[in-house]
Amino acid sequence: MAINKAIIDPPKSHGGLRNCIEYVLRFGKVKDELYTIIGPYEYDQINYDLVYQSFLHEKQLWNKDHGRMCIHNVISWHKDEDITPQEAFAFGLEFAEKWFSGFQTVVAVHQDKEHIHCHFVTNSVSYENGKKYHSSKKDLETMKQMTNQMCKEKGFSVAQKGKHFDGTDIEAGEVITWNKNKYNIFKNNVKQSYVWDCAKAFISAVKDCFSRELFCNRMQASGWTVHWSEQRKHITFENKEGKKVRDSNLSKTFHLSIGKEELEHEFIRQRTDAENVQRELAGYYRELEELGAGSVSDDTATDIGIGSSEELRETAGQRSDRKSDEAYRRTEAVSPDRDVSEQDASGRKSEIRKKNRRRSGPEL
Fold first, then answer.
1. In the chain, where does DSSP find H-type helix?
2. Residue 238: φ, ψ to 5°
3. Is 198 exposed, middle or buried (0-12, 13-18, 19+ CB in 10 A)?
4. Highest mean pLDDT range out of 30-34, 91-95, 148-152, 293-297?
5. Strand order in the sheet with 236-239
6. Using one digit for the tens of pLDDT, what is the confidence trace for 130-149?
7. Is 32 exposed, middle or buried (0-12, 13-18, 19+ CB in 10 A)?
8. Helix or strand (DSSP H, E) at 227
9. What is the dihedral of CA 200, 205, 207, 213, to 10 degrees?
10. Strands 105-110 vs 117-123: parallel, antiparallel or unpaired
């Protein structure tokens, strides 16, 4: 599974360009001479200083030695991907020749981590026509599709949205940002991030939430004001310090389904689930009533956790005997001086018990 990342904030100075090239070609990160440069290069040896001079010469040739100096991309493979450094280098070289055609590009495979990854440093000025490199979000999506297609052709696994390398689902709230700087902030200083705080508040507020109003109230109670307007495409969350987080930012960073349409559907889903639970409970109580009237089988009684008819019959019998004893004591209390034989008393108690049992309904 290859992940193609575009490094944000590329260098805009000569020193930054030099440092970027030096890092990519640093000894210890690159091995087995798995590095090269495509495009015009007048030197026999490849090292960071000579590559830097070549990039600079191309910029000065077109009088565009200013602004963004280069483009930095990284293609990374999962640590469990069955790929060799040589295969990664061939993959990177093919990708660079296709995607960065017309631009000088350094290709170097790093093996200093548990996963293999290939770096690309591309001159921002084309050696063919002097135009500067530009890319849009659509271009980044096309780049991802091209990377996936190359993986398919070469027999490597392909990244699937919402899935880990092993096929398991990415859980809601899990950090998945492709922004390296942002990822390191969350990894090392997660408690200090207001974006993380907003994500936690969102996960808590959306749970068992049936309406937009309830959701906004819960976010407000957590210290976040929800700006949800029909005139705007995105939902914006703002804390008491004025820090703002857009819904799209949370979605991409934490694998959360956030957006106007997604939330409205989630409210409806949770409301429907709650109504279904209420209907199930109503049916459950109806079964209890039927069971008490003696019209439910032992299997059904066991399934709903009430007990068998034999157990209920025993309980009903004990309850009837208790009522009979109470009735008998009340009779004795009314006529304490009445001389009654023990046999007559026993007979009256038996009659009272039979009468109470007939009133209690048919036996189970």
1. 14-24, 48-61, 85-99, 137-154, 180-189, 194-206, 212-221, 247-254, 260-292, 298-303, 309-334, 342-359
2. -130, 130
3. buried
4. 91-95
5. 224-227, 236-239, 244-246
6. 999 998 889 988 999 999 99
7. exposed
8. strand 224-227
9. -160
10. antiparallel
pTM more than 0.70: no
Integer Cα distance of 4 and 144 in angstroms: 6
What is the arithmetic mean of pLDDT over 236-256?
86
Name the band, by pLDDT with cuts 50, 70 and 90, for residue 170: low
Looking at residue 313, the DSSP 8-state letter turns out to be H
Residues whose CB falls within 8 Å of the CB of residue 213, separated by 6 or more in sequence, listed in order: none
How many other C-beta atoms lie within 10 A of the C-beta of residue 58?
22
Copy the structure tokens of residue 250: 């949370």
Nearest C-alpha neighbor of 86 from the set 27, 147, 94, 78 = 94
313, 292 Cβ separation under 8 angstroms: no
Structure tokens, 204: 């808590």
| Residues 183, 175, 192, 220, CA torsion sign | positive
- Give yes or no for residue 10 having a pLDDT over 60: yes
Place of tokens 């350094």: 106
The string of DSSP codes covering 178-204 is S-HHHHHHHHHHGGG-HHHHHHHHHHH
If you write DSSP's letter for every residue of 16-73 in order, what string do you get? HHHHHHHHHT-BTTEEEEEEEEES----SS--HHHHHHHHHHHHHHTT--SS--EEEE
Residue closest to 122 by CA, chosen among 106, 137, 144, 134: 106
